[in-house]
Amino acid sequence: MYTQQEIGDYLSTIRIKCKKLIDSLTEEKLSERFTEGTEPEDMDYPILEITLYNLRHTQHHVAQLNLLIRQDLNQHMEWAFRAEEIKITF
Questions:
Q1: What does the alpha-carbon distance between residue 47 and residue 29 come to, in Å, rounded to a whole number?
Q2: Cα dihedral sign, 43-29-10-67
């Protein structure tokens, strides 16, 4: 089990890491390949594709968490248009 503070710290770290990654993307970087392993069935995608996939995958899990929060706590997340508008409080 993780404390709320540990989860909040992790979210902050990941947010910074994601922003740095997106800010560092150039045309050259986007044309590079993301590979995992050397077998024919192993992942081999352009950086742009795997980045978009990961963003969509994250959205899916956030939606799952929001569903659980609504069902179990009868609460909902306020809509935020910018990351700076999201305040994590414990």
A1: 7
A2: negative
The whole-angstrom separation of Cα 90 and Cα 8 is: 8
- Residue 46, strand partner residues: 33
- What's the distance, CA 56 to chain centroid? 8
pLDDT band at 57 (very low <50, low <70, confident <90, very high): very high
CA-to-CA dists, residue 50 to 27, 31, 32, 40, 43, angstroms: 15, 11, 11, 17, 9
Structure tokens that stand for 90 in this block: 């414990």
Residue in the structure block whose two tokens are 């989860």: 7
> DSSP letters of 20-48?
HHHHH--HHHHTSEEE--SSTTS-EEEHH
This prediction's pTM = 0.67
CA angle (41, 22, 37) in 5-degree steps: 20
pLDDT for the residue numbered 13: 92
